[in-house]
Description:
- By secondary structure, the protein is of the alpha/beta class.
- It is 43% helix and 17% strand.
- The chain is built from 13 helices and eight strands.
- The longest helix is centred in the N-terminal third of the chain and has 21 residues, at 85-105.
Amino acid sequence: MSDITPSTKLKCVTVHKLQDTSCLRKYFWNRVLNLESRKVNLNFHYGSVLHAGFETLLMTHNISKALFALTTESKKRQKRYTITTEDLDELDLQVQIIQLFIKAASIQPWVNRLKMLWTERQFRCQVADTGVTFCSQVDGGGSAGKDDALFEIKTAKSVNNSYFEALSFDHQIHGYGYQMQQEHQRFPSKCAFCVFRKPSKYIKKGQSREAFVQEIKTDLVKRPEWYFIADPQTHQFPYMLTMGRNTIEQAGKDIVRATQILLKQYQCPEKDILDPYHWPCNDKQCLNYGACTYLPLCRNMAKWQLYTRLYQQREFMYDEEKAELQI
């Protein structure tokens, strides 16, 4: 672990960081030891590449620039992680499919109603009585029709009414409202959730990759509403959420309380902070949304240090995270 520096202080939180506390052992691996798998995460790759392409499309309404942006993002991701031959084939297929999605999106009737004026903007506010900064990075902001709106881009394998109900209480988006409110900034009351359903089709036995890509292309033309998820109330893309002040206030209270609880974990000697047993494992989370990337460490607690070779230092999004590092 000589090339990995742990974080032994709590100087900032994010919605995702607080969500990681559902299993404190996972939080320890990811947020204290700052470990991430050396192996590429195919789901994360798909999401980040689609983000890059769609954000650029809404910023420029230029399909060539959007395709260049998604290809560039894929190359950047591939340089950071270990890629097997099998992974490389899957990544290449993902890029081809996402290119089809962006091309299809560029000719949908709703695309001209959406205009993104800025992307990946960071917001910050102080969490009351903690000395901790709440940080976030918004996908984008602009307009959806006549409404000023924030933009959130989501990919999902399965989408139903419960999915949209969950979005209406999403702490991430309401956290943005909370931050802007704390900083006395004007914030849009609307959020455009651009939800893309991942293809449920798979390459059949004996089917060539070219034939499979053509099958997806044909399906996108035949039923675009299956892939570009419309608002169940208006039947239009994207799903528009009105951010109510009461929900924003509730999200703020949750963020403050969750931060206070997490801060207590750091109020101990540094050797305890760096002890994985100081951070209890919640085994109910091990197979939540697939196998946890830190299972090799948890399964071999007696010699977990040996398994850190499977991991590398995670990327930091915020300057405040650097202030958390062990000196």
